[in-house]
Amino acid sequence: MVVGAFPIAKLAMLGVRQISRPLANSIKANARRSQFFKTYICQPPAQAYHWFEMKMKMRMMGFKGAQVQRLNEDTAAELGSELLGEAIVFLIGGACILAEYMRQSSNSAKKEEELQCTLRGLEQQVAHLALTVEELDARIRENNRLVLSLPAGSLDPREKTH
Question: What does 131-149 look like in DSSP terms, one character per residue?
Answer without folding.
Answer: HHHHHHHHHHHHHHHHHHH
